[in-house]
Hints:
Elements: H1 4-17, H2 21-27, E1 28-36, E2 41-43, H3 46-56, E3 59-71, E4 77-87, E5 90-91, E6 94-95, E7 99-111, E8 117-124, H4 126-132
Parallel strand pairs: 1-8
Antiparallel strand pairs: 1-2, 3-4, 4-7, 5-6, 7-8
Helix pairs in contact: 1-2
Amino acid sequence: MPSERIETVRRFLKAIEQHDSKAIRLCLGPGYTSNDKAVGKTSRTREELAREGEEFRAWSDLQYEVEAIFETTDGAVVAQLVKSGTLTGPFRSLTGSGQHVRYSFCDIFRFDDAGRIVQEDWYYDLLSIKAQL
């Protein structure tokens, strides 16, 4: 049976797919930090996280396919994922105009004592996205 933390990550990913801000916020704890390691971007403040959310609105029919997910001995959750969707606007340094994109990435989540996500580190190859655009 999956741990509560793994279930939280699954709910979080589903909420992102559905662009459901309320459900996303329910998964996050105070002080949540998002670290996009591909571009060296960290979002901490409400404003930075809102801008981050806007970039994700450029993805339609977004889907996360979980290839592997596990909890580490220190309580972090590591997810190996494939993200796919249609990119219809700006995302990071790229701009899509309706192309379907599919790429692999790794996401590492850390949690507070209440089981909410407080840190997310994501790793992916931006060049693989660019090549599909």
